[in-house]
Amino acid sequence: MTTFCQLQELRLEGNFLHRLPNEVSTLQHLKAIDLSRNQFQDFPEQLTSLPALETINLEENEIVDVPVEKLATMPTLRSVNLRFNPLNAEVRVIAPPLIKFEMLMSPEGARAPPP
């Protein structure tokens, strides 16, 4: 059986995904994950347990709520791209003072340009 435990980058953009398998939490060396242009409505919480993760791209999904407190405790996180997600106002307000990483968000109500 192939093991992906050494995997450092995972690109799953544009795959109609709405959830991640729990096995993702075994990717202890993962540094970057691209989940853009999928159908996530909930932030994939498994990502918050990955110790090496630096970059999360969730651009163009349907995410409303983000576990800001959990993200704030991730030691290596540098960037979370949440552009073109219908984020709730609370996330926009509570995130900036809590986080040390870059969180990219579109203006409220912005829609992604058609492909």
Automatic annotation (TrEMBL):
Keywords: Leucine-rich repeat, Repeat. This is Leucine-rich repeat-containing protein 20 isoform X5. It comes from Erinaceus europaeus.
